[in-house]
TrEMBL record, chains A, B:
Record key words, sorted: Oxidoreductase
Superkingdom to which the source organism belongs: Bacteria
Organism: Massilia orientalis
Protein name per its UniProtKB record: Homoserine dehydrogenase
EC number, as in UniProt: 1.1.1.3
Amino acid sequence: MKPIKAGLLGLGTVGAGTYHVLQRNQEEIRRRAGRGIEVSMVAVRNVERARKIINSGIVGSEVEVVADPFAVVNNPDIDIVVELIGGYDLTRELVLQAIANGKHVVTANKALLALHGNEIFEAAQAKGVMVAFEAAVAGGIPIIKALREGLSANRIESVAGIINGTTNFILSEMRDKGLDFNTVLKQAQELGYAEADPTFDIEGVDAAHKLTIMSAIAFGIPVQFGSAHIEGISQLQAVDLRYAEQLGYRIKLLGITRRTTVDGKEGIELRVHPTLVPGARLIANVEGAMNAVLVQADAVGATLYYGKGAGAEPTASAVIADLIDVTRLATADPYSRVPHLAFQPTELADVPILPMDEIRTSYYLRVTVQDQLGVMADLTRILADAGISIDAVLQKEPGEKARTDIVIITHQTREKYVNAAIAKIESLATTVGKVVRIRLESLG
Amino acid sequence: MKPIKAGLLGLGTVGAGTYHVLQRNQEEIRRRAGRGIEVSMVAVRNVERARKIINSGIVGSEVEVVADPFAVVNNPDIDIVVELIGGYDLTRELVLQAIANGKHVVTANKALLALHGNEIFEAAQAKGVMVAFEAAVAGGIPIIKALREGLSANRIESVAGIINGTTNFILSEMRDKGLDFNTVLKQAQELGYAEADPTFDIEGVDAAHKLTIMSAIAFGIPVQFGSAHIEGISQLQAVDLRYAEQLGYRIKLLGITRRTTVDGKEGIELRVHPTLVPGARLIANVEGAMNAVLVQADAVGATLYYGKGAGAEPTASAVIADLIDVTRLATADPYSRVPHLAFQPTELADVPILPMDEIRTSYYLRVTVQDQLGVMADLTRILADAGISIDAVLQKEPGEKARTDIVIITHQTREKYVNAAIAKIESLATTVGKVVRIRLESLG
């Protein structure tokens, strides 16, 4: 059978990784797919640099290198366009053009899909082509496939994931070495684990892109990045990691999405924030730059998927798996292919994403107080009045005289009740500064 | 679109689970698959009991219940036969007959596929039908899909899994409570975690069935159950779990399959046995009846898949995912479907399974010795002469006077060298009884 022809947009880290793995494992891939997958055209800004990468491969002379990505997208000989440029303006245009030309698309671009996924999937559906994006979430872990196909018998209840390696690396280092955020960030940048401008990672935006995609697939709803609640780790203090540890928890940046019912109405939680997780959970023990996704579903129960969430070859692994899948399903009746968002496009549900006020979870609260009789009684009274029950309390001398840190772990409650209670606690004369509030998930 | 019609063979734990999940989640499944999946016929030994199970469902009146499984297999209205009977004589006949009748087959039967997989897949290939078996390995964890599709870009290097819940439950309890094997087995039987005749589980046969299937898929070789090395946990002593713990390891029953090179020739290791694993590894922390599979592959690196490996609904989750996949791929060009053993049938490799003498791993050795000068020197001399280097030594008084337990962790070596060294150690006048030898994998 003739090899399928792929055109690559971009030959950066992931693009070069994809090219090299396709070359190195071409036999293995052909033995699986039943036909070869050939990169016949590459579009890059720096054509000279690209030629060097390609010539370092086993065979490469037949690859056409161009500067104009539209030359790939409009080339009638290309069967599949592989978008590995990043960003969401030019790539939106390129992907829509590829679809209009009747080409299948494989992309690793989470931002593009989190922002323009609905438009792109609709165009692809109308044209009868596939847009595959395993590499957009959790790198080489086949989590899109697991959610969309592996668990297709289930009503999925929740997805909770460590889906940003940079922040997990930073949190692991902060905990291990007792260092503060800024010190570790600087080290991470020196080691190449964090980018020069790390905002997207450390502020949770990258994780929210990925979570938005998983949420859509898990629950059969459109992608709704605009409704995601996003908090990063840059405000986390080393002292809270230490206290969490003493209480038997670890702090992880989790992306959490969950079905819930508020006042009798269905809603979906969609949130990225630092989270206390019981130390005994497997996911609490995912260290360094690794990713893991925990899925709760009605029939199968809890399943967990772990691996490298970034990097040239782990991401290439997912890109190429998509290439093989697309090659395979290209011959199937379009209606029978795996739907982009797991559910048939006519079957997406209209369940609202909940505002944060309405979510239910537990909380870690740290209150610094003046060491005075009756302080604890005041705090516990405020929480009791708000209907918030207490799971654990830790009292610590932070080193400053006449001050005490009181750490409270609450049982589950609605966020708006906690926020109201915090406002009251902060208005007490004995409270010093702001209350630190970190959400806690038992993931039981 | 018309619902697809499935015929169920067997309505035991997994059969009833499959029936119930298909009923409960029929809307969710239809929204995903684009068409309904309907159980229209069930074959069971006890027709009355089956009617009760079916009538307890939401809709069930249209299900025909028969005593003769061949009536399902030969019914022209059935699209997919779901074999959930177990055993490998009658089921072999039924599955081959279903294939001959041009029906797709979904099965949870690991024994059947480990023993007769090659014959069955060949028949299916010739007839252009699919045999799907996600439920045969690790219950609800979509590990077949991950190995066969999710990691299809990779050269897979090794698979190591906790793939039998009964034995993992027993080992967790032995470690937790310091109890011996027989005591815990009895408790496990009372709790329903072990069967009345637990031989297949505790002696590693069930794990070897599953490992055989994963090995074939990972490396593109035929199923070769007859060449698997199988050791269970019934001979494990509580003292060795304790010593392992003191050295920083846990003992798990692992199924391990790995590419290797011996004397310049390619070979594949295929073995189930108790294994020491460093306590810090995620897989070492998989407790109770849970399953986990760790895959090493060249592009993606290490990935791990965790979840429930047995039970009515976790297994049903996998059975139904297969039903949906088969429904979907039924419309694809047969050549483009996912090959049964991951690689195209003409592309299976002829790499031999290695005899145990040739495998390379590390070892835990416990030698009980008479407390005498020079004993340690004798032991270490024997190992050094055999070219085996030592990673750690632990010396313990087992409580009997004038005796000492010497525990040695070796670096990697070939099994035949260790066995030869053990024979020499056992022939020493100072050695009491047999040397306990447990393999160790760093899984790094």
